[in-house]
C-alpha cells in the first residue's frame, strides 16, 4: 500500500516550514503544487491524475488542496493541516503582506495602511476573507466561498468533520509538539520521514516586536475593532480550540513523548546550526 502525504497548505500557517521538511525528507518525491487553477477546478480528480502520473510521489502540498482524496487502488492518503490562533494569524497576515514583494491587492493595501486600518479593510464584506473565518472555509473545502455573510452551521459542520477525520491536524503555536506527533503517526508507513526544520518564510527579524504578536496585545492594538475581529473569526476560534484539545489527546497516547520532543528539538538545533 502506497501512502502519500497530502498537505493542505493554509496561507500564513507555517506551511512553508512543513513543506521544507517534506522536501528534505523525500526530495523529488515531494511536490509543491502551485497550479491553483487546476486544483480549484478539478480538485480530487486532478490529485488522482497527479498521483497516477508521478509514481515516485510521497508527499504533495497545495494552497487549494482537495478536501476529498481520490479513491485509488493500492493508495492511501494522509491528509495533514496546520491551524493557527486566528487572532495571531491576523497580525501575521498583515506583517507578511506588508513586506512581501507583490502587487496583489492585499500587499498594496498593507503597505499603505496601518495595522488597524488594514484589518478594518479586511473586515468588509466585499474584501477577500483572508482573515475572516478563513481556516473554517479551508477545512470545509469551500475555497471559492464568496458570500458576503459569514459561513454558518453547515460549513462549520463540514470543517469539524474534516478536523476529526483526517490523519493529522497540528497547531502553529505548538509546532514542535505537532511535528513529533505527526512523525509518530506517519513513520510506520514512511520510515524516512523527518520533520525537523529550519523556519521558512518568516517576517524579517526585528521588523516587528515579538510582544506585538500575542493575542491580547493584538486585540489591544485593534481597540474597538477587536470585537468585530472576534465576531468574524468565531468559527475559526472554535475550530482552533477543538484542534488544541485533539492534539492533547493525541500526545497523551504517545509513549515517552517528552523524550521524543527533546530529541526532535536536538535535531532541529543541529539543522539550524548548519544554516
Task: Provide the spatial order of strands within the biggest beta sheet.
Answer: 2-3-1-4-5
CATH C-level category? Alpha Beta
**Strand proportion:** 5-15%
- Whole-Å distance between the termini? 36 Å
Name the CATH superfamily classification. P-loop containing nucleotide triphosphate hydrolases
Number of helices: 12
Proper CATH architecture: 3-Layer(aba) Sandwich
Low-pLDDT segments:
205-209
List keywords for this structure.
275 residues; alpha/beta; Rossmann fold; five-stranded parallel sheet; 12 helices
Short description:
This protein has 275 residues and is an alpha/beta fold.
Which helices and strands, and how do they pair?
Elements: E1 2-8, H1 15-26, E2 30-33, H2 36-53, E3 59-62, E4 75-83, H3 86-99, H4 105-112, H5 115-122, H6 134-139, H7 153-165, E5 168-171, H8 175-186, H9 215-222, H10 226-231, H11 234-252, H12 257-273
Parallel strand pairs: 1-3, 1-4, 2-3, 4-5
Helix pairs in contact: 3-4, 7-11, 8-12
